Automatic annotation (TrEMBL):
HAMAP family reported for this sequence: Met_tRNA_synth_type1
Top EC category: ligase
Organism of this sequence: Lasius niger (Black garden ant)
Protein family (similarity comment): Belongs to the class-I aminoacyl-tRNA synthetase family.
This protein's UniProt keywords: Aminoacyl-tRNA synthetase, ATP-binding, Cytoplasm, Ligase, Nucleotide-binding, Protein biosynthesis, RNA-binding
One GO process term, biological-process aspect: methionyl-tRNA aminoacylation
Listed name of the protein: Methionine--tRNA ligase, cytoplasmic
Localization per record: Cytoplasm
């Protein structure tokens, strides 16, 4: 065997150790990175002639582990290649040898420390060193186990420290170290970097190169590059010379499904119109759906993308009350805002509508009557909350209280944001009117219910046939609902803003927004075309794939409710086939908050000066597909500067600029292609196949990273082939340079098509520079072919991306961090002063009310009660919007909240207790999110005592709490 490596590359030491353990004979061949195939080192060449470019694959080949341990071994090998090594390269440089304990690297080492507890090696019950042991040990030993970092590990991570020492003592390790003389530290890191990535911009900084290494070492899905087989080379050569490149079909209005074709109906959860959408809202629904719809169009699927604003419901009514206007005026205002935001982001709806239309009313009422005629509607008398002060029944969103399941303090009357549990408002513990903050009374009201238990079996049968095509979070949520058993669901409310119930005796009721909103997909399609039934009730010989995009909080209504409505109607309606839900996007480890100025909202994005396509790129790059993700300004700039500017932008610009300078802005002929040419095309074909596979499953984040992998291959190919040297040589050398540039121009053409779903404006600009028509974004093929004919005339090349400077990043980060981060201490003092003055005013007003009640009738004291309630609301608002105070750390115990003593003034005590409970509840929630039980459990006890005292004062019977069943938030 031959181990080919550049000097001082620690990854070669991994192969040497494994070869010695396997007792295989080998020789080490030191080469320059520029002389290696694709510049990837080390490589392991077997006696058969096969070369392995992946160190992990070579280790597994040399040291197979028992079958029962393969999964564990592979998991830690992937962890090392996808997380540990990139983090080392990103966080360590020539100017630093000490890694802060709060860095990402330290977090990874803590994970390793937990795994190594009570184990000598990573692979349990495996006495010999495993591939994972070798790979992780070498990466740590060769790079960071120096001076201060080693001391920190010994002190704080004993399991890791012992494991490192025990492995280093082994004879095979000592022999290998002596045989491959390695200079540890920054030179070892530089050798890894040199053999993994050649920066095409020689002026780029060290940190930029490290970012490039990071993404190059960690391909999407930890996909490792194996040696290109002869079959792959033959296939790419055949498709290149004989394949025909298709064109994108032009669609005519209206777009309708067709027999024998792939018909795709794309929708996104209808955005609600009571606020401006933020970045998380945008990537959670409309942007994800847009990327997928654009992909489908470029694959020549018959595609229709519709969406619109959800405008009925209590949130709109609440916003109207807040702004002292009508619900319709609120809808009109925010419909325009949403429309403008989505237009700027380049969201390509075929039609963007709204639910306050005659078509929506007609369809909702018609569906209700159909479902009722099929026997799926029940009539029941229900208890509803009625606010005596406001003189109205309270819709769910007008009520807040304690969740009966997880005890979250600020659960809404329809859903708990703490645990996601859906509920009826009367289930809340200690409910309060959101408008006046008083406790509502319970009154009876007759309502319609959807009989979900009656249709449960049909829902289960349907779900079993489609759930494999759903995202993971969509499957998890829907399975939980069906597993727990369905209950009848109320679908009407005693409100005014909504679609009237078309039944005698129910004239003063409207349909609940959860029943109404999903039908918006149908009514908006009807607004688009009168032939809407061809999409929603297609003939049996025409297949329609309904694909819906949303965040996880919308899953129950689309996985359970909407299909239940359609199945109950029993008229062969199109059901959801692909339900693509995401987790949540946070803003720099916080929640987006418009009122507090935290985060970028749709109307802010344009003001940043960052192009819409860069926003689209980054949001897709961090799309929360499998877990919550985090928007970060530094990361946005890094990804822009490394992935877009230094990787993708540099590749296409160099190829086109070379064509302009040396080949009169044409694509030169491909003459006598060599193995290196077919190799780079074969590698690009691998990425293309993975791209299509990912996009078909709406794994958009993965799809984007496969695009970037193609441009990385192109960059490396150009760097190693050096056409700028060959163009100065003999005639044969010049022809060789022409072949190289022709292949690079074709890869740039392929990239323009693959990039278009994510960055449509950028793709259009790139295609213009390629001399291609702007009418189409380009067909996305399954196999790579020669897309640009010989002597094709290109346009004028120019850079398509610009660098985001550090100064701009810092300015934007401060601008959207919220006012609570500036002059925090002064803000806290002002808040404290205001609270103190309000508390004094409440006490004074409470005394006045008590005195008036004792001597006068209601007409005298009722106005003073209103003043008292207004004061209480003001103090709650001030408290909720006040700057967050620093939480106590684990080394400093939290100060207990003062429990007010009873002083004979019941009204004053109730007010004070309510304030103390709210304050203590906030403290408990904050501590639970950041500290362990030893810190927050004592504060919970204080909170429970406060609540019990309030119960004693108000005379309400206490609610038993089963602490064992409480869920952690």
């Amino acid at each position: 065997m031959i181990i080919s490596t550049n000097e001082n590359n620690p990854n070669a030491l991994k192969l040497i150790i494994a070869a010695k353990l396997a007792q295989d004979t080998f020789i080490v061949k030191v080469v320059k990175p520029g002389d290696a195939v694709l510049g990837r080192l080390p490589t392991l060449t077997l006696p058969s002639g096969t070369s392995l470019f992946s160190v992990s694959s070579a280790l597994r080949l040399l040291l197979p582990v028992p079958k029962e341990l393969e999964v564990l071994n592979n998991r830690w090998l992937e962890w090392e290649i996808s997380q540990l090594q990139p983090t080392i390269l990103s966080h360590t440089s020539a100017r630093t040898s000490k890694i802060p304990q709060k860095s990402d690297l330290w977090s990874l080492l803590k994970d390793l420390n937990s795994e190594l507890k009570d184990k000598q090696y990573l692979i349990e019950k495996h006495s010999n060193l495993s591939p994972a042991d070798i790979s992780i040990w070498v990466s740590l030993w060769s790079t960071i186990l120096l001076a201060d970092m080693k001391d920190n590990i010994s002190k704080d991570l004993p399991n890791v420290s012992n494991w490192l020492v025990n492995i280093e003592k082994q004879p095979v390790i000592q022999e290998s170290i002596k045989e491959f003389n390695l200079e540890r530290g920054t030179k070892a890191i530089a050798s890894i970097e040199a053999a993994s990535w050649f920066p095409v911009n020689t002026t780029s900084s060290s940190s930029q190169r490290c970012e490039s290494v990071s993404s190059d070492i960690s391909p999407t899905k930890e996909k490792e590059i194996e040696a290109v087989s002869q079959e792959e080379l033959n296939n790419i050569a055949s498709s290149w010379t004989t394949g025909q490149y298709s064109e994108v079909k032009e669609s005519s209005y209206p777009i309708l499904p067709k027999k024998g074709e792939r018909n795709v109906l794309v929708t996104s959860a209808l955005p609600y119109v009571n606020n401006v959408p933020h970045l998380g809202n945008i990537i959670g629904c409309v942007l994800s759906a847009d990327i997928f719809a654009r992909y489908c169009r470029q694959r020549n699927y018959n595609t229709l993308y519709i969406s619109g604003t959800d405008e009925y419901g209590t949130a709109t009514e609440a916003k109207a009350l807040q702004e002292k206007t009508t619900p319709q005026a609120i809808c009109d205002k925010f419909f325009d805002i949403h429309n403008d935001v989505y237009r700027w982001f380049g969201i390509g709806f075929d039609y963007f509508g709204r639910t306050t239309t005659p078509e929506q009313t007609e369809i909702v009422q018609d569906f209700f009557l159909k479902i009722k005629s099929q026997g799926y509607i029940l009539t029941e008398i229900v208890e509803q909350l009625h606010c005596e002060s406001c003189d109205r029944f309270l819709a769910d969103r007008f009520v807040e209280g304690i969740c009966p399941r997880c005890k979250y303090e600020d659960a809404r009357g329809d859903q708990c944001d703490g645990c996601g549990h859906l509920m009826n408002a009367v289930e809340l513990i200690n409910p309060r009117c959101k408008m006046c903050n008083t406790r509502p009374a319970i009154k009876n009201s007759t309502q319609f219910f959807l009989d979900l238990p009656k249709i449960e079996e049909r829902l289960k049968e349907y779900s079993a046939t489609v759930e494999k095509g759903w995202s993971n979070v969509a499957r998890v949520v829907s399975k939980a609902w069906l597993r727990d058993g369905l209950k009848p669901r109320c679908i009407t409310r005693d409100l005014k803003w909504g679609i009237p119930v078309p039944v005698e005796g129910f004239e003063n009721k409207v349909f609940y927004v959860w029943f109404d909103a999903p039908f918006g997909y149908i009514s908006i399609t009807k607004r688009y075309t009168k032939e809407y039934k061809k999409w929603w009730q297609p003939p049996q010989d025409t297949k329609v794939d309904l694909c819906q995009f949303m965040a996880k909080d919308n899953v129950p209504f689309h996985a359970i409710m909407f299909p239940a409505y359609l199945l109950a109607a029993n008229q062969n309606y199109t059901l959801i086939k692909y339900l693509m839900a995401t987790e949540y996007l946070n803003y720099e480890d916080k929640k987006f908050s418009k009122s507090r100025g935290i985060g970028v909202f749709g109307t802010d994005a344009r003001d940043t000066g960052i192009p819409a396509d860069v926003w689209r790129f980054y949001l897709a790059y961090i799309r929360p597909e499998t877990q919550d993700s985090n928007f970060n300004w530094v990361d946005l700039a890094t990804k822009n500067n490394s992935e877009l500017l230094n990787n993708l932008g540099n590749f296409v610009n160099r190829a086109l600029a070379f064509s302009e300078k040396f080949f009169n802005s044409t694509v030169p002929p491909i003459e006598r292609p060599e193995e290196a040419d077919w190799t780079v095309l074969a590698l690009a074909q691998r990425e293309l196949s993975c791209y299509i596979n990912a996009m078909e499953q709406a794994k958009l984040r993965d799809g984007l990273k496969y695009i970037l992998a193609i441009s990385k291959h192109g960059n490396q190919y150009m760097q190693f082939q050096q056409p700028w040297v060959k163009i100065k040589g003999t005639d044969d050398d010049k022809k060789r340079a022409g072949t190289i540039i022709a292949i690079c121009c074709n890869l740039a053409c392929l990239l323009s098509a693959l990039l278009a779903p994510f960055m449509p404006s950028t793709a259009k600009e790139l295609r213009s520079q390629l001399g291609l028509s702007n009418k189409s974004y380009g067909y996305i093929p399954e196999t790579i072919t020669n897309m640009l004919p010989t002597w094709h005339k290109i346009g004028k090349p120019s850079p398509i991306f610009t660098k985001i400077e550090d100064q701009k990043v810092e300015m934007l980060r401060k601008k959207y961090a919220g006012q609570q981060e500036t002059n925090n201490e002064m803000s806290e003092n002002k808040a404290d002063e205001s609270v103190a003055s309000l508390e004094a005013a409440i006490t004074k007003q409470g005394n006045l009310v008590r005195e008036l009640k004792a001597k006068h009738d209601k007409s005298t004291w009722q106005p003073q009660v209103e003043i008292l309630l207004d004061l209480k609301k003001k103090i709650n608002d001030l408290k909720n919007n006040a700057p967050e105070k620093k939480l106590p750390t684990k080394n400093k115990k939290a100060e207990p909240t003062h429990v007010p003593e009873q002083n004979g003034d019941a009204l004053t005590d109730v007010v004070a207790l309510e304030m103390a409970i709210a304050k203590q509840g906030n403290l408990v929630r904050e501590l639970k999110a950041k500290e362990d039980g030893s810190v927050w459990k004592p504060q919970v006890e204080i909170l429970l005592k406060l609540k019990q005292r309030l119960i004693d004062l108000t005379g309400t019977a206490p609610v038993a709490v089963d602490k064992k069943s409480k869920k952690k938030k």
